[in-house]
């Protein structure tokens, strides 16, 4: 029973790693970007491959929401990239195809992208060589890092929940104050109308 549970825990991170692979077709003279939100201080690695087409140049660029370039490669055909995030942000991986032949004359290029971040991006084989770890110790280290990432994700979600709750409470308070102010304005306007109509009818001698 312990062996089955341990195997399940070991295989789960491995299955989780394969979820970041994607492939798509890139038409000539077009731009396609993939977006992903990543936490602060997270290692991001990736491997890409672009099918070759004559007279076609494909550029790769990775930028954050502020427009800062984290990785750039002109005439990208195959390679790897890696960077560490400095803050929680939305990142874009953009592939741009350029060709003087014009659209419709050149077939679409096939782009394959495999991105990993956090625990998935760590090279545990290299860690095992450096620290001289046994296979069981490597898997335990992997599970420990994976558990820590889950805890960090829950902590971040809790922080966001607190921020959203504070925002909701602040919004409710502002709505309440606005409602009270509106009621006071309506009551004041109604009172003024009563006195105005009373003076008007007295002036017309319709009432005493």
Automatic annotation (TrEMBL):
Signal sequence annotation: 1-21
One Pfam family here: EMP24_GP25L
Residue spans crossing the bilayer: 175-197
Record key words, sorted: Endoplasmic reticulum, Membrane, Signal, Transmembrane, Transmembrane helix
Location of the GOLD domain: 31-182
Annotated membrane topology: Single-pass type I membrane protein
InterPro entries the record matches: Emp24-like, GOLD_dom
GO annotations of cellular component type: endoplasmic reticulum membrane
Highest taxon above the source species: Eukaryota
Subcellular location: Endoplasmic reticulum membrane; Membrane
PANTHER family in UniProt: TRANSMEMBRANE EMP24 DOMAIN-CONTAINING PROTEIN (PTHR22811)
Protein family per UniProt: Belongs to the EMP24/GP25L family.
Protein name, as recorded: GOLD domain-containing protein
């Amino acid at each position: 029973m312990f062996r089955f549970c341990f195997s399940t825990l070991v295989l789960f991170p491995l299955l989780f790693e394969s979820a970041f692979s994607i492939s798509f077709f890139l038409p000539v003279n077009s731009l396609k970007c993939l977006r992903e939100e990543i936490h602060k201080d997270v290692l991001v690695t990736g491997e890409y491959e672009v099918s070759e087409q004559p007279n076609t140049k494909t550029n790769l660029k990775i930028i954050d929401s502020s427009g800062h370039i984290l990785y750039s490669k002109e005439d990208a055909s195959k390679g790897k990239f890696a960077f560490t995030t400095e803050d929680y942000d939305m990142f874009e991986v953009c592939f741009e195809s350029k060709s003087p032949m014009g659209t419709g004359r050149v077939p679409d290029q096939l782009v394959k992208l495999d991105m990993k971040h956090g625990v998935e991006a760590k090279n545990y084989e290299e860690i095992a060589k450096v620290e001289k770890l046994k296979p069981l110790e490597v898997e335990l280290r992997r599970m420990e890092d994976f558990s820590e990432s889950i805890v960090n994700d829950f902590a971040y979600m809790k922080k966001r929940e607190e921020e959203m709750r504070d925002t909701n409470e602040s919004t409710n308070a502002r709505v309440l104050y606005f409602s009270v102010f509106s009621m006071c304005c309506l009551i004041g306007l109604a009172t003024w109308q009563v006195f105005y109509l009373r003076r008007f009818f007295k002036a017309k001698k319709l009432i005493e």
